[in-house]
Each structure stands twice: as C-alpha cells, then as structure tokens.
Amino acid sequence: MSAAISKSLESGLAGRQLSFRYDRKLPWLFRGLDISIAPGEAVGLTGPSGAGKSTLAQILAGFIKPLSGSLMFNDKPLPQKGFSPVQYIYQHPQLAVNPRWTGGQIVAEAFQPSEELLDMLEISADWLNRYPHELSGGELQRMAVARALGPETKCLLADELSAMLDPLTQALIWRTLINYKNKGLSLLVISHDRHLMTKVCDRMLPLKRFDQP
Amino acid sequence: MTCCRTGESRTGFSFYYFRHLILALLFLLGLIALRLFLDSSGLGTNLTLMEEAPSWRHPFGTDSLGRDMLIRTVYGLMVSLKVGLMAATISALIALTLGVAGAIFGRWADLAVTWLVDVGMSLPHLVLLILISFAVGGGEKGVMLAVALSHWPSLTRVLRAEALQLKSAPYVVISKKFGRSSWYIATRHFLPHLVPQFLIGLLLLFPHAILHEAALSFLGFGLNPHTPAVGILLAESLQHLSTGCWWLGVLPGLLLVMTVKMFDVIGAGVKKYFTPYKD
Description:
The structure holds two protein chains of two kinds. Chain A is 30% helix and 22% strand. By secondary structure, chain A is of the alpha/beta class. Chain A is globular and about 50 Å long. By secondary structure, chain B is mainly alpha-helical. The two termini of chain B are 14 Å apart. The relative contact order of chain B is 0.15. Chain A binds chain B through residues 61-63, 81-84, 86-88, 90, 95-98, 100-101, 109-110, 131, 133-134, 148, and chain B through 5-6, 169-171, 173-175, 177-180, 189, 192-193.
C-alpha cells in the first residue's frame, strides 16, 4: 500500500531544490524550490510580475539550466535528447513558429497530428498551406498547441498561452487541454486570469518575490 | 511592392522597380552574346594592322601585333567571369558552412570560426592572393583558389551573426525539444533564412573576385601571358602607353569596370527583391 503511494508520488515531472537568478548582482528568483506535477494534474503558478514564473517554466522545460537542483521525470533525470516529454508553449505564437514555413510544416514538425486533434482545435485544412504572417495569432496559437500535443508529450507548460487570444479561441484551447488532462496530461498553468486558474487548476503554487540579494 | 508572399503580389514583379537589375542583366547577356558571335579570327596576329586607333572596323583598336582589342577584351572578360563565378561560389559556400557551423556546434566552434575570420580579415588581401596563387603554381587554378580562399571572411561574419540570432529564436529552441538534430535545424530552420543573405553575398563577392583576378594577372602571378585575360591586357598596355596607344588600356579597363559595376547592380537588385523593406 505504502509502496503504491510512494510510486504514484514519484511519477510525473518534478523539480528538486531548484535555484536560479539571472546575475550574481540580482536577487534570487527562487532558492531550493521543490515542485512536482503528477500525471493528470494541473498546477497553477501564480505570483506578481517578475517573480520568476516564466523562468521557472523555462527551467522545467529545459530551456534554461538551473544554478542548482535537478529535474526528474518519472523518477529519472529528464532526458535532454530526443523528443522531450515536457513541452513548453510560448505566449506569442508569432515568435514560436518559423516565418518561412507553411502551417502544415509547422504543425507536423514533431509528429503528424491526428484529424481528431485538428478538429478539436478547429484548425482548418487551408491554413496548412499558409505562411505564419497570413494567419492570426489565435490560429497560430492553436497550431502551436497542436504540434506540442504529441503522443509522447506527458506534461505541458502553458506560459500565458491564452493571454493574447479572443475568448472563443481561449475556450477552444482550454477545452482541448482539459480533455488531454483527463487522459493523463500534466499541466503547469501560468496566467493572471484568476477565474481561468480556478476553473482549470487542481492546486495553486504561489511564487513570492525575493527582494533581498 | 508591399509583400512578396500573399496573393497577387507574390507573382507580381514591377519592371520599373527592378529596371536597374534588368538593364544590368541585359548588359551581361550582351557581353556573352558578343563572346559567342564575334569571329575569333581577330585574335590572331595581323602585322598589317599594327596599333590602329579605334575605328568602326576595330572599335577598340588593335594592339602591337595587330590583334583586335574588342575581341581580346570580350574573350578576356569571359575568362574573368568564369574564374570569378567559380571563386565567388566556393568562397560563399565556405562562408555558409563556417557561419552555420559556428552557430550550431556551440561555443568552441564559434570561437574557432571568429578566430579564423579575424585572421582572414587581418591579412592583407593582395599578399594572401599572391601567396596562395604562387603556392599552387599559378594559372587559372591558382587564381581561382587564391580568390576563393581569401574572400570568405566578411560574408562568414554576416552569416554567423544571422545564424546566432536564429539559434535563440523560440522556434529553434522548441525544435530542439522536439528532438530534432543539429543537421535538421541547420538545413530546415537556418538555411531558408540564410539563402537570401547568401545569394546577395555571393553576387557582391563577384566583382571583388573579378577585380582580384585581374589584379593577380596584371601583377603576373595569375593567368598565362598568352591567354587574353583582362589583367594581362592591362599589363601589356602599360608598355605601349608612352607611344600614345591609349585605347589599349582605357577601353578594356572601362569595359571591366562596367562589368564589375553591373554585378554590383544585380546584387543590389536581388537584395531589393528579397528584403524590400530595408533601406
């Protein structure tokens, strides 16, 4: 019984004793921070601007190396090579897609998304022939979500992913993500939208601002 | 030109906007046509026609052996174009490889590339050209190699800077987390962005290559004295300037300068086509 519990605690993404600051002269964003997200769980990361929410998400995604601490996935170090089970979605989809690729190339960079997924995000087939500057932010963000929701994606870090979008597209994307969450996807949600957070997240993790260097 | 990708304007090509480019291309095509249709018999010596001033029969005059200077100049320019094209292409490919490698293979590769660029740029061009050409034994191969191996540093710097910028682009960071290899990222993400810069760089290298080829031949480290290369024509003309044969140097020199300028114009036109918003 206790073995089963400890096993379930270890699965999913976990950051252990993470510390980070951008410069020696700057205050720590966090020191010795522990964070874990179980499969099928949605954790909301809250805090004032500059508290390090995006930095923490980018560390969890493996974009930035923490100054100390480690990243574990299912109790093993998070793999640095190959398709990462932890995927990150940017706030601005225009920057997150190659402007010289067509929608079809963008969506299928990691894997060919199923018709079902494209339908769920209401991505129409003729967008796939267009270039990013011929698509709106909402359309691009839906593509960015579609390409990240691969069969091997176990955890999605949503950094203000719907802040720039109209309410309809927001609802569409979150409905899709909740659908995947119910199938076992872990979510880390960063948002300033409290109502969205209470709706989507199972628990909140407040990040405070360290002001002392 | 508002945009080059959407709807109508994607296929639209404004002749007025690109008139310089078109004129320059026509000039070069005319030169090639001259090379193809001019009778090569004028290349032989004709001692009855020594040192004739420009006339309708011989627009560029004749030299001290009675050879038609227009034909010699056109033939010489074609040799220069061939050498220049090869040398500029090799040079630009070296620049592309080094520039991308510097960005892809991390800090040490980048340091090595910047060091090579610094070394390449700090060596005096002409000395390096003469050294390389002399070392490989001169001739067409020597000139080509010398020009190819001495012209890549500045373009490498430009391409490296572009590639470094792309390296930290969010879509490249994401591509890495999709498990994509360095080769995939270099060819699929970097190259489409670098191709315009590469082509413009290639075209702008071209005039340099031609001029340096002419300079090498002029100094006697390049092509064989009996091949009609522009540099050799100019070197020969020096001996006859004092006897009043101004056309031997002035007219081939003028045509060389015009040809080089035309490549510059084509380079600028292509740049305008790829980046219509800049300057």
